[in-house]
Structure formats: structure tokens, C-alpha cells
């Protein structure tokens, strides 16, 4: 999957005032270009409202970009959806699947697990006979550790635990033989002890099916687990942009962007900051309004390293895995940049931790 300079805007509903004023626009995603290689894992991380879900939905064709293009194997998926491409949209749709945060939402409460899983197979693989479909479903149920499979297949959703429902949601996505699965906070609702189990299962089945995952998480330690174990990538999002992208070893062990450092600091399992006398690597905990994002670098209002130039110029992300290049969208990643001559705007840098 390839995203070329993708932006998604939403008109913000401000009620009665809409009649009298111009509608405000939220740029939920702003100029994102990424590549999700085949059989690979990319995890998007960022604070609430930074655009992770919008970017995820845009990647799998559930949200139309307002600018830029999304390509599946070189085919523009929106051209295909509108019947203008060479590849039938049906094939693209089947190849791009989703697992929601709430597994219950993809299961009909009045149908057994088997009936719920039969439905998509009937729709997308009509050539398979009923016996083949049943066999395929039962073998996948077994594979996700729900045994005896027939017993689970005959159950209704209310007879399953949260973890089991999420496994069924994973089976539902995997039986389609997809190229990419969007896992949007798919493990957040599970008990901590079950999260690692679910991630391990996803990884194991990835090898079996040969699918890619675009995983969305607000938790940097889960992102690290998934990306490190699979040799995948982490993308850090801030106010609609990806500000850092690379393998877990680059992004988590040795972050470049001040925002990634702040996220790491805020993640207890990863934080290497000591309690005493340390200053927190962020100037403000308030997220700016997405309707009127700050000029220049969007993080400059919170960045402890911000200088005058950051308020005026917009830093670009530079990524080229083929060249092992992962430059964050931060002027500090460039040795030779006017940033280094620019004046400090932070009044001495970070806030003391005691002020949080
Ligand atoms: N359908 C919509 N209509 C209007 N605004 C929207 C719509 N969907 C998302 N937004 C806005 O776009 C921005 C990004 O939202 P999005 O849900 O993609 O963020 P997120 O990072 O996934 O957040 P969270 O982690 O809370 O789910 C937010 O400001 C949100 O209010």
C-alpha cells in the first residue's frame, strides 16, 4: 500500500453558528506519504485526535482523501471504487480488512460464530462449497487457540469472553486472505495480560497468511513490542502529520523528534527519565486546536527545543528505507540548518517535572 501526500479534511460542525459564519475545517490528516510493504507491520502512535483512525481508514479505502492518492499494488483505490481503474474494486475491498477496537461490533449478537464467519466467505468466495467454507472456518478457529473449534463455532457472541471475541474478529479478517489488516486499537480493550497473547497470535498468523498489519495504538510500549518482534515500523503522528517514522530500534530506542521523546517519557515502561530533578521533555500538556494548528512546526508550542525558525518554517519528514534513511520532521535532525543559529523561544527549556 502506498499513500502519496494524503490529506483528509472534515468540516467541523459548530451548530447554529454555521448559519452565520464560515464552517471550520479540521485537517485530520495532512500531507502524509508512507509505504506499507507486503507482509510487514506498521504501527501508528500518537495522542487522541491526532488522526490515526482517519489515516487508517483512508489506507483501507473506508475514507476518501480530500487530496493525494492511496494505491494498492500501484492501483488508485478510489479510481477503482468509482469504476475507473483497471483492477476491479471487489478484489481491493477483499484484500483490505479491519479489526475494530470493540470486537462485538463486527459480530451479530443473534448469529452463531459460524454463521457470522460464513457470511463474508459467501460474499467473497462464492465458488467455495459449504463444506469447504466450514472446514476453512473451523481450521482458523482452531488456529487462534479456540478448541474444540466446533464448540466455539456454535456459540453466540454473548457466550464468548472479550479475548475470544477479538480472536473471532481476527479470524473474520484472516479468512478473507487479505493483503492488509487495519487493527485499530484492537488490543486496547483487552486485559493487560491478554494483550501480549493477542499480539503474539497476530504475529504468528501473519506468517501463515502473509498479510500486513497497520496497527493503531496510543501505547508506545505495545507499538514497540509489535514492531520489534516483526522487524516492522513505527510512525509517530502529531496533529495530522507523521513526524517520525522508522524501525523500533530507531524510533523508540533512539528517538529523534522531541515529540517522540515526550511520548517515551510519558510511557512508564519505556521512560528512562529519573524522578528527581529531571525536567519533563515537553513545555505544555495541552494539545493545540486541530482547526488552527500552530504555524511552522506544529509541535513548536510544546517543544522544549523550539527556536524562532520553528514558528515560521515547516520541517519535512524524510524516509527512504531502501537507503536506511529515517529523518524526523525536525530541524534538529539536520546538522547544517538555520535552526542552530536561530534564537531560543522557550525561556530556558523544559518545565520542571514538579509542575505537571
Ligand atoms: N467524521 C468526522 N467528522 C468531523 N471531524 C472528524 C471526523 N472524524 C474525525 N474527525 C476529527 O479529526 C481529527 C482526527 O480524528 P481521529 O479519530 O482520526 O484521531 P485519532 O488519533 O484516531 O483519535 P483517537 O485516538 O481518540 O481515536 C479529530 O480532530 C476529530 O475530531
Q: Explain this structure to me?
A:
With 356 residues, this protein is of the alpha/beta class. It has a single domain (2-110, 156-341), classed as P-loop containing nucleotide triphosphate hydrolases (Rossmann fold, 3-Layer(aba) Sandwich). It is 31% helix and 21% strand. The protein contains twelve helices and 14 strands. It has helices at 52-59, 77-81, 89-95, 113-124, 130-143, 149-153, 162-174, 192-209, 220-230, 248-253, 258-265, 308-312, and strands at 2-12, 24-35, 41-45, 67-72, 75-76, 96-99, 180-184, 212-217, 233-238, 241-247, 279-280, 318-320, 325-327, 351-352. It has a six-stranded mixed sheet with strand order 6-7-8-3-9-10, sandwiched between helices. The chain has a four-stranded antiparallel sheet with strand order 2-1-4-5. Strands 11-14 form a two-stranded antiparallel sheet. Helix 8 links the parallel strand 7 (180-184) and strand 8 (212-217). Helix 4 (113-124) crosses helix 5 and helix 8 runs parallel beside helix 9. It is globular, with a radius of gyration of 22 Å. The model is unreliable at 349-356 (pLDDT under 50). Adenosine-5'-triphosphate is lined by residues 10, 26, 28, 46, 48-54, 218, 290.
Provide the fold topology.
Layout lengths: L1 E11 L11 E12 L5 E5 L6 H8 L7 E6 L2 E2 H5 L7 H7 E4 L13 H12 L5 H14 L5 H5 L8 H13 L5 E5 L7 H18 L2 E6 L2 H11 L2 E6 L2 E7 H6 L4 H8 L13 E2 L27 H5 L5 E3 L4 E3 L23 E2 L4
Helix pairs in contact: 4-5, 7-8, 8-9
The structure holds adenosine-5'-triphosphate.
Organism: Halococcus hamelinensis 100A6
Pfam family, one: ABC_tran
Protein name: Oligopeptide/dipeptide ABC transporter, ATPase subunit
